[in-house]
Description:
Blueprint: E1 5-7, E2 14-20, E3 25-32, E4 41-48, H1 54-58, E5 66-70, E6 74-75, E7 94-97, E8 99-100, E9 103-105, H2 113-119, E10 123-126, H3 130-140, E11 143-149, H4 154-162, H5 173-176, E12 182-184, H6 201-204, E13 209-214, H7 219-228, E14 231-236, H8 241-246, E15 251-254, H9 265-274, E16 280-283, H10 285-293, E17 297-314, E18 319-332, E19 341-346, E20 352-357, E21 362-365, H11 380-390
Parallel strand pairs: 4-5, 5-7, 6-8, 7-10, 13-14, 13-15, 15-16, 16-21
Antiparallel strand pairs: 1-9, 2-3, 2-11, 3-10, 4-11, 12-14, 17-18, 17-19, 19-20, 20-21
Helix pairs in contact: 9-10
Amino acid sequence: MTEGVFGATQPAGIPAKLVLADGTVFLGLGFGAFSPDSEPIVSEIVFNTSMSGYQEILTDPSYMGQGMCFTAPQIGNVGCNPLDIESEKVYVSSVFTRDLSSIVSNFRAKESLDQYLKRYRIPGLTGVQTRALTLHLRDNGAQMGAIGKASIPDSELQNAAAAQGSMAGKDYVQEVSCKEPYEWFELPWDSASDSYPKVSPEQIWERPHVVVLDCGVKKNILRLLLAEGFRVTVLPARSSADEIRALKPDGIFLSNGPGDPAALPDIIAVVKELLGVVPIFGICLGCQLMAHAAGGKTYKLKFGHRGANHPILQKATGEIEITSQNHGFAVEAETLPSSVQVTHVNQNDHTVAGIALPELKAFAVQYHPEASPGPHDSRYLFKRFFELVVS
Length: 391
């Protein structure tokens, strides 16, 4: 048998279904951790249009509390490995795919997607009409859904989903943030060695020090900050301004994360206190937190932005960046004070995709310049942050 090419464990074939809060039913067959004894699981059902990188998506802490519908028709054909991850676990609550590949074929694969989800106790449904599910969410909005055995009455699953309300007002940051501070020494992936090279504390001690407020930070963000020339320390999301200042940072980074930014008033207050103290860079939830701290507001998008080909206009240059995105809330442009500039605009729906507070040396974007596997159009933002810190 060729290494990395093997037959995946076939789905158990247990008839199962997803019932949305509005009563719409989608049938499928259970795989992953789905079993005859599985209890219904409720989460917000969203879709991602990326054609690659499903393992990075599954392990992104920003998806906490959400069930993932992949629009790519077949998932699992390249298997899973211990390197293509953004955290130490799978954060999506459930997975929906049209066709779970029965063959894994990739030289880096160590296990199938079915085995991977079993290991992390995440249920999935295959054979789902994902095109119909995606169109329904697009037209009617992302909403709560319950996954369960086919024998459970539709009304029971619908009621379970409806009882959870929506993502508005939910704070998932407390569940994904680190519990203790830590330092970061891992660089971006090296193709020659198929590994993440590491540096020693001594090698980077005299570098500019950036403190990362971990609201659900992805590993590749930390790798790119280190690669750009920073020394990186990660703190729990609810660290106080005094705790952050005590580390004598040269810059502060506000990370991505799940849930509703308006449900984080304590974190917003800390960001407000730190604006203008040292340069600040934010990504995704970090952009929303910065907007709130500056006096703006956010709102819930109908179905969110999740995919790897979203066009973003950089207003200063007129250039279009192709970006990876994952968010369900957006900054309300009309609420931003005059001191805040809108620097980037989403070309699909003209929502705010980037802001800057020039006088306070702070900026943020509503997308993922660190995206792994890509695209890489926006990697320049890490260099911009470094130059802002050392200037």
